[in-house]
Amino acid sequence: MSESVRAAVEQTTAEFRELYIDINLKSWDAATQGTPAALDAAAAARARWMRYWADPAPYQQYKDWDESGAAGEDPQLARMVHLLHLGFAEGQRDPGTIDEMTELSKVLDDAYTNFRAEVNGQRLTANAIDDILANENDSEKRREAWEASKRIGPHVADQIRRLAELRNEAAHNMGYENFHRMSLTLNELDPDWLYALLDELAVKIEPAFRQAKAAMDAELSERFGVPVEELMPWHYADPFFQRAPMLGAVNFDRFFAGRDLVELATKTYDGLGLETRPVLERSDLYEREGKDQHAFCTHIDREGDVRVLCNLSPSLRWMDTLLHELGHAVYDANLPHTLPWLLRSYPHILSTEAMAMLMGAITLDAEWHEQVLGSDPAQAAAVAEAGAARFRLEELIFARWVMVVVNFERLLYEDPSRDLNAAWWDLVQKYQLLNKPAGREDFPDWATKYHIALVPAYYQNYLLGRMMSLQWQGWLNEHAGGIVGRPAAGAFFRERIFTPGNTMHWNVALEFATGEQLNPDYFVQKFAR
User: Fold this and answer.
1) I need a labelling partner for 339 at 20 to 30 A (CA). Which of 162, 414, 505, 515 fits?
2) Three-class SS of residue 392?
3) In the chain, where the domains are located
């Protein structure tokens, strides 16, 4: 029996592999070119992908094999059967639904890729908006930039709502309450566990967040000449208040003025014994018209063609982002080719997010400033002290932002017809403690966030990934003395993180690496004590 199962898995893998490479190449072209032809090609590849996974026959076959243990005593075969069961379960949709979802996704891809905010007749990139919110002291100019960045909302809100309805229809047909619960479950996250974890974490970190935000608001009030109670969302560092503004005496951006971020990133990973040059040579790193303004890493073929897309400028944010995306890249590039192709991946997206977030955060580390940036020890120590405070503020802010997004998606998929504008601002006020500007009741600010439209049920992975990275950090501090410039840390990643690939459940893989499963107390102790 197991041999017939193995033969079926090999056949499915061969089919899956061809579609996987095609959709990744077409998506890369769409992101780097933004042309109608590239977007159409990506949409067609997405449709072929969705039709493949919608086939009910392999879904039923792999479901039966998974539940009956037909793979026998071979753990790798059993894992592949389980993953294919989950993949086909998530893909069950009728052809008409697939066609409509494909068209909606293409329209949204085009909208987000080619949207540029306009202020006083000038088209501004996302980087330009961020620069205004980072550096401009005039509240009116900040408001204009913030509002301009939100104008994509009305153009995409109806399509997002319709996509949510279609996703829900598929979930209902599979016996799930809604798409959000189905997606989490089929990606090996228990929805009730996640919701309870976020609720518990919200309570545990709220006092620390309120205290940190009060101190931050006092400084922003002085900077902008605005009473604390009149601070608005445009007085913060980005359009969503997901990052910390530059506060205090240390302006971290100045350390990167005139520096080559690619050179700094290469030096960082060289210190771990992890090669990044082939990835960087294949990557697209600088902004231009028609290019996706976000950042991501893609492993085109699971055979070593790993690429990064960024829009680099000399700032802390983009240094962090480049190190972050290269964290994904070295994970992908070091997956052993001795593994079956289907298992040549991470056990869960949060695992690769953990690697990315761990590496992005070292920009605030004293050893990194000394060894990579070349700062003298005294300056590096002073920067690290300010960096620790900034890291804490960043993580408290970001955790509360994740709670907004995840809880909004939960509400969206529970009832896509509800008043989403009101639901969004209720959550923003509850978790981020922001004032709602007048007139936003009739504006779909929720629709301006790319992930809600095109990367649904994903955002929790950033926070869970941070929690996982802190467990890795604890292990590395004890057994390797840290991360920066330590080949032993690189060996930990290769041997305990990358080598197993996707041969086990993500929490079992974490226990294999560190000796315990996910423990949120690492996050609470570091940032909310």
Assistant:
1) 515
2) helix
3) 192-242+250-527
Which has the closest alpha carbon to 167: 59, 90, 56? Answer: 90
Count Cβ atoms within 10 A of the Cβ of residue 225 and give its class: 0-12 exposed, 13-18 middle, 19 or more buried.
Answer: exposed
CB atoms within 10 A of CB 182: 25
Higher-pLDDT residue of 293 and 84 is 84
Tokens of 143: 């408001």
Q: Determine phi and psi for 373, rounding to 5 degrees.
A: -80, -20
Q: Which has the closest alpha carbon to 484: 499, 495, 473? A: 473
**CB of 292 within 8 A of CB of 31?**
yes
Residue 496 — pLDDT band, cuts 50, 70, 90?
very high
132 CA to centre of own chain: 24
| Measured CA distances, 11 to 4, 16, 62 (Å) | 11, 9, 13
Nearest C-alpha neighbor of 93 from the set 43, 42, 55, 47: 55
Neighbouring C-beta atoms of residue 192, cutoff 10 Å: 10
HEC sequence for 136-169 = CCCHHHHHHHHHHHCCCHHHHHHHHHHHHHHHHH
Q: What is the pLDDT of residues 202-229, one digit of tens each?
A: 999 999 999 999 999 999 999 999 999 9
Alpha carbon of residue 109 to chain centroid? 17
CB distance 174 to 162 below 8 Å: no
pLDDT at 42: 95
Q: CB burial class (10 A; 0-12, 13-18, 19+) of residue 285? A: middle
| Maximum separation of any 2 CA atoms in the chain, in Å | 74
Spatial separation of the C-alpha atoms in residues 496 and 490, rounded to whole Å:
10
Tally: H helices and E strands in the chain = 22, 4
What residues does 122 pair with on adjacent strands? 119
Residue 387's contacts (CB-CB under 8 Å, 6 or more residues apart) are: 250, 252, 363, 364, 365, 366
Inter-residue contact 191 to 409 (CB < 8 Å):
no
- Stretch 407-432: mean pLDDT: 98
- 192-242+250-527, which class in CATH? mainly alpha
Helix, strand or coil, per DSSP, at residue 47 = helix
Q: What is the DSSP string of 425-463?
A: HHHIIIII-PPPPTTGGGS-GGGG-HHHHHSTT-THHHH
Are the beta carbons of 246 and 237 closer than 8 angstroms? yes
Q: What phi and psi values does residue 336 have, to the nearest 5 degrees?
A: -70, 135
Q: Is the pTM of this model over 0.85?
A: yes
∠ at Cα 338 (281, 325), nearest 5°?
A: 35
Q: Which residues of 76-100 are buried (b: 16+ CB within 10 A; e: fewer)?
A: bbbbbbbbbbbbbbbbbbeeebbee
Are the CB atoms for 483 and 272 separated by under 8 Å?
A: yes
Q: Which residue has the tokens 């401009």?
A: 136
SS3 state at 48: helix
